[in-house]
Amino acid sequence: LAKAVVADTNDNTAALVNLTTPAANVVQLSSSQGSAIGPIAVDIDQDTAIATIANQQTNNVSRISSDSGALSATIAVDQGPLGVSVDPALGFTAILCATQTPATIDILNTQQSAAFLTAHLTGATLPIGVTLDPVNNWFLVADSTGNRVLVVDPQNAKFVQNIATGINPTSIAYNFQALEAVTMNTASHTASLLEI
After folding, report:
1. Do residues 176 and 134 touch, judged by C-beta distance below 8 A?
2. Is 187 helix (H, G, I), strand (E, B) or coil?
3. How far apart are CA 179 and CA 113, in angstroms?
4. Whole-prediction pTM value?
5. pLDDT in tens, 43-96
């Protein structure tokens, strides 16, 4: 694809950046399909080139083509979305909504031409980081104040594992070749290496 999408919270846009030339196409996220204020996180489905952008202030996600910049949908989610991860193989997207009580992990079904919300999982205390485990087709969620990683099965809309971390994990990355995840633990100033 050689493209990136950058969410810009200050002016409520997404910049489509061509990585082979120094050019950007700026896309306004608010449209007749709905308002989108406070874009804060983005992930791209590598198979369809559709970017999903979490808009924290309007409690929705925008879906745009990273090729053309065309806005295809604005979908309501729970309060304060701040993280997003896409599973292109199964057609699910995890949205972290952490500014409400209880916090939720919303699951979008993106298998159809029109994406729709399929589940609201509760049980996380402050889900703040998310990545995809493409081997098991699970989402790995850093639950910051829970000091753990929650493993989410999007097909069955349930938690399948709860893995302890250091204090206050705020970001997570996954190495599918080693079947290991790493969290950065802000309060304990440590990293946790986790076997998945």
Report:
1. yes
2. coil
3. 32
4. 0.91
5. 999 899 999 999 999 999 999 988 888 888 889 999 999 999 999 999 999 999
What lies within 8 Å, CB to CB, of 112 at 6+ separation is none
Q: Tokens for 109?
A: 């079904």
pLDDT tens for each residue of 89-146 = 999 999 999 877 889 999 999 987 788 999 999 999 999 999 999 999 999 999 999 9
Q: What is the dihedral of CA 48, 53, 58, 60, to 10 degrees?
A: 40
Q: What is the residue whose two structure tokens read 């993280």? A: 83
User: Who contacts 37 (Cβ-Cβ below 8 Å, separation ≥6)?
Assistant: 12, 30, 55, 57, 58
User: Taking CA 163 as the corner, what is the angle to CA 121 and CA 182, rounded to the nearest 5 degrees?
Assistant: 105
